[in-house]
Write a structure and sequence with these properties.
It contains 19 helices and five strands. The chain has helices at 9-18, 22-38, 56-79, 82-87, 89-99, 115-129, 136-157, 164-169, 171-179, 248-251, 260-281, 283-298, 323-355, 362-372, 374-385, 387-397, 401-431, 436-460, 468-473; strands at residues 6-7, 185-189, 239-243, 315-316, 319-320. Bound molecules: iron/sulfur cluster (2 copies).
Length: 480
């Protein structure tokens, strides 16, 4: 079935005309990244009076954590993964290395979709233990790890301009892939998506598409990096660029290759990411730290308080993480991820159970409802990440805290209402009337949304406890 609406010929022409020049933009982005990662290592520490215009460290932090990550995620809703196809230096580097690499066939373990969850979890936790938002060395090391892995994967498995790193491993690409289910832009076969025979795989390595789509059967956007290689100016050949309703792919997800690991990701990522903010700002974490630390001392286990390896932890002027810190931050984040994931799954399962009449439809209803939660699940992470943006806007450009809070609240509310609307539409589509079952089912969705809202409240809007270290980091107090 096709739900395409409007073909964007002008966008196709842009790709056909300018695609070969994208490498220059990617090269420029590579040097910009290199500068923003390396220059802060040799810059003097900012003082309270410094701004992003006078301090390279503050500029780098702002561009990475205030602008880039949030803008990347938001942009996917409008442009698809254009960041990946047009700008990203990491994917481009991995592709270029593949041109001179070993071109090995992809082993089965590489093609496991679960890397999405594993790598996102590892990188999110390392981001905290290495304090990539505030420790320039932490950021540099994490980028070094990720770039090295991308180069190794590209060198070993890249074939004919393929991007196995982007297809199977990149943690940023995977989160962008989930958000792309909401995108209003989609690359689809011009002759309509064909019914895929059982003999045909959904993905084939070494053809035209860098992420290995078997193009005539492409019916999902999560692995499409919007590179435009498949676009043809012949009227009825290749793929075209189409405008569709927002979240259309999520709404018809059962026809668009739902993925169990994406579902797991939607369930656990809000808790995991929120845990990464809350340990910094909630008094609860300090209480936990004191009591767990006290337990280790009472049992004479002092080695845990040794300085942790700098390969996985921040060892900056204002903090030296111990193995205890690394372990506790990791456990705290994983704990949040698992607890929020389980609660989310239970609430969505209860909602799905109420809308199905036959048991075998339960799984489909659960998948459908979970995908409708992408706006609140993922956009809440972006809003949390926007913190740096508003911090700088307030400190450097005088944006009032009230206005910043209102903008964040509006974004959070917007994502909640969007998910609520999508789930209500799906539930109505399944029940076909507004009755008690409809209301009860929607109540469980409301509980889920309220839980995510509550989770992000302190990090986005609340006046939370803030440790001395965090105040120094945020330049609220000046260290003596
Ligand atoms: S998948 Fe990752 S590495 Fe590849 S282009 Fe996208 S962000 Fe860059
Ligand atoms: S389907 Fe493949 S070739 Fe076409 S835009 Fe997407 S990633 Fe590029």
């Amino acid at each position: 079935m096709r739900f395409l609406t409007y073909r964007l010929h002008w966008a196709e022409q842009l790709f056909i005309k300018y695609r070969k020049h994208l490498k220059y933009i990617q090269l420029a982005m590579f040097f910009a990244f290199l500068y923003l990662v390396i220059a802060p290592l040799f810059s003097t520490r900012p003082t309270f009076d410094d701004t992003i215009l006078t301090s390279t460290i503050l500029l780098s932090q702002f561009l990475f954590w205030g602008l880039w990550y949030g803008a990347c995620l938001f942009s996917v809703i409008i442009f698809g993964r254009l960041w990946c196809g047009a700008l990203c230096p990491l994917g481009a580097l991995s592709e270029w290395v593949g041109l001179i690499g070993l071109k090995k066939p992809l082993p089965k373990w590489v093609q496991w979709d679960g890397w999405l969850v594993i790598l996102f979890t590892v990188v999110t936790i390392l981001g905290q233990t290495m304090d990539v938002r505030d420790d320039a060395w932490g950021l540099a090391k994490l980028f070094l790890y990720i770039f090295s892995l991308a180069i190794i994967v590209g060198y070993l498995f890249g074939q004919h301009g393929g991007r196995p790193w982007c297809r199977y491993f990149c943690p940023i690409g995977k989160i962008l892939g989930v958000v792309s289910r909401l995108s209003i832009i989609n690359f689809m076969p011009n002759n309509g998506v064909k019914e895929k025979p059982a003999s045909q795989p959904s993905y084939i390595q070494g053809r035209l598409c860098p992420t290995d789509y078997n193009l005539p059967y492409k019916n999902s956007s999560n692995n499409c990096i919007t590179c435009g290689a498949c676009v043809s100016d012949k009227k009825k050949a290749g793929l075209g660029i189409y405008l569709q309703k927002p979240a259309q792919e999520a709404k018809y997800i059962l026809l668009n290759q739902p993925n169990k690991y994406e579902i797991l990701f939607i369930l656990i990522s809000p808790g995991l990411a929120a845990g990464g903010f809350l340990w910094l700002i909630l008094h609860q974490y300090q209480v936990l730290r004191d009591s767990v630390g006290g337990w280790f001392m009472a049992h004479n286990i002092f080695s845990i308080f040794n300085q942790a390896s700098s390969f996985i932890s921040s060892q900056a002027w204002n903090q030296h993480f111990t193995w205890f810190d690394v372990g506790l931050i990791t456990s705290y984040m994983l704990g949040y991820g698992i607890i929020v994931g389980i609660l989310s799954a239970l609430l969505l399962a209860a909602s799905a159970w109420l809308v199905v009449e036959r048991k075998h439809n339960f799984k489909k209803a659960f998948i459908l409802l979970t995908y409708q939660c992408i706006p609140i699940a993922i956009l809440s992470i972006v809003i949390g990440l926007c913190g740096k943006f508003f911090e700088v806007m307030h400190h450097d450009f005088g944006l009032s805290l009230k206005i910043a809070a209102m903008i964040k609240f509006s974004l959070l509310l917007g994502s909640m209402l969007w998910s609520l609307w999508l789930t209500a539409t799906v539930i109505f589509g399944l029940i076909r009337q507004i009755n008690l079952r409809f209301c009860l089912s929607l109540t469980f969705i409301l509980l889920y949304i309220a839980m995510i809202f509550y989770l992000w409240w302190p990090a986005t809007l609340g006046h939370a406890y803030m440790s001395e270290v965090e105040k120094i980091r945020q330049h609220i107090v000046i260290p003596k």
